[in-house]
Amino acid sequence: MRDGAMIGLLLLLTGCGGGTADEPTIRVEIHRTGAAASPTTAPLPADVIVFRMKRDECDHLRGEEPTGPARAAFLRYGMERTCTGTDAALRALRQRHANDPATIAALARHVDAIE
Predict the structure, then answer these.
(1) What is the four-CA torsion angle of 25, 90, 115, 80, rounded to 10 degrees?
(2) What is the pLDDT of residue 7?
(3) Domain spans, the chain
């Protein structure tokens, strides 16, 4: 990873957590390992982690070359699903976390306008 740390994001869908049996609960656990995982290092905010995961998938799909019509359709769908709205989301995250240098640094590698 570029920042020297491995971040694992685990989404667990469970049937407990205060709601009825028909209302599942989503629990997010963030595990940080590696060189940057010192006790003094605060993890990135959850909204930033979710954004980075979505934008990273978008960037990956943008770099793919279609090998045929089916692959081109798959890539178009994937880019619509993962890239749409991320320019505005990036601007909003930079404003929301303007006073957090670590978060701003984590967002710095993302291009401002891809849509």
Answers:
(1) -10
(2) 45
(3) 1-43, 44-115
